Amino acid sequence: MGEYEEQRRRLVELLVEEGALFDEYAQRAMLRVPREEFVPEHLRHMAYIDEPLPIGHGQTISAPSMVAIMTSHLKARPGHKVLEIGTGSGYQAAILAEIVGDEGHVYTVERIPELAETARRNLERTGYAKRVTVIVGDGSQGYREKAPYDRIIVTASSPDIPRPLIEQLKPGGILVIPVGDRYMQRLYIVYKDKHGSLRIEKGVYCLFVPLIGKYGWTA
Ligand code: SAM
User: Fold this and answer.
1) Between vectors from CA 113 to CA 112 and to CA 116, what angle results, nearest 5°?
2) Range of the domain at 182
3) Which of 94, 124, 190, 218 has a beta carbon 3.0–4.6 Å from 175's, enabling a disulfide?
4) pTM of the model
């Protein structure tokens, strides 16, 4: 077993033990996706420390425990069409691509073109590019072109749940999003039932970079 593979296995074990990784599909995906391929080269040795890391342009790749918690709540499954807002490094998109398989697809929206380009390259190198479409734009408006989605995940913080995302979620779908002010947020897990009614469960407190756009923060 390679050095990173061993570190990955140990981190996943720890996340399961801590209760952060409580969905078996999420667990399998985190065991398979090489996080070291999604962090800047000079930070590779820190890929399996449970910390967010800088990826340039003032943005971060989220801590593995946060990816574990969000992916576990999201309950993505093979064949699902998933929308991610905030591509960043492409790591979370790769985790989702690993879960949805060849029958599903991941659409991921990033507002900073340079990050979208790096994410595309990371996804290409790790073999996930076919299952992921990276779009440059304002994800607070969702991505109407391919709506509705089985699952939607937002990896930047929002003052409220953007209305277009609720509209673009299928009945029976789940949306995971950090909601709060600039300095503290709470993970909202939004369930849309088959009649279109919403139920919101509040999860852990967290701190994300802001979702900047029409239905997020202004700057
Ligand atoms: N999921 C990413 C990963 O796996 O590396 C980490 C995402 S990072 C915490 C948040 C990202 O959201 C940043 O790359 C930021 O540029 C992006 N972002 C902020 N506002 C956005 C918007 N309105 N639409 C799309 N992306 C946005």
Assistant:
1) 90
2) 3-206
3) 190
4) 0.98
